[in-house]
Amino acid sequence: MSEVVNKTDHDSAPSESKVLAAVNTSELENGNKPNQSWWNKSTRTKERKLLLKLDLFILHVKSDWYTPKASFAAQMFSGYLQAAVYTGLDGVHGIPGWRWLFLICGCINVPGAIWGFFAVPDSPYDTKVFYLNEEEKTLARSRVIEVGRKPFDGVNLQTFKSVLSRPFVWVFVINYIFFCLDTYGPGFFAIYLKSLGEYTVQEVNV
């Protein structure tokens, strides 16, 4: 994603350029993480119903917003949207355009954060979400016990030793470094365009 770049270093503040995609990307995709802790390989009927309910309140909400090409469309559109906000709202009520971008991003993200606070189900051992009854919570705990998952008991030195001694962790780290270089690197291209001094703020972001 491109970053918002302003005319002077004094007035500039880079945005993560997710005005459109932020509706469901950052705040709602976080539901993937806790949901992973509820999963095992079983396909029993009651368990499928449990996971379906979790998906309905978290993952399905997010997936309904996406098509395979939506991510690319969001990246392209967000640049145009930012340019429009920067131009159209710059100076309104004495607020610079780049500050308006932060305000708009906040207004988009706050509803998702509030929803996530109530909907993300924590761990099966201590979840308090409103849409699961006691039978379903008990079922969830029994499922993770079956595959040997224990309640989280904090982080200590042994935790780090255990994690860092696993080869797949290092394979993942190396893979993720290359993933970030390929995925997030182009997002800083706007900084390079700014350094050329040949483009306006609007041109840099579109």
TrEMBL record:
Location of the protein in the cell: Membrane
Location (main, coarse): membrane
Domain of life, per lineage: Eukaryota
Transmembrane segments: 100-120, 168-193
This protein's UniProt keywords: Membrane, Transmembrane, Transmembrane helix, Transport
Keyword Lyase: no
GO molecular function, one term: transmembrane transporter activity
Topology in membrane: Multi-pass membrane protein
Keyword Membrane recorded: yes
One cellular component (GO) term of this entry: membrane
Record-given protein name: Uncharacterized protein
Gene source species: Cylindrodendrum hubeiense
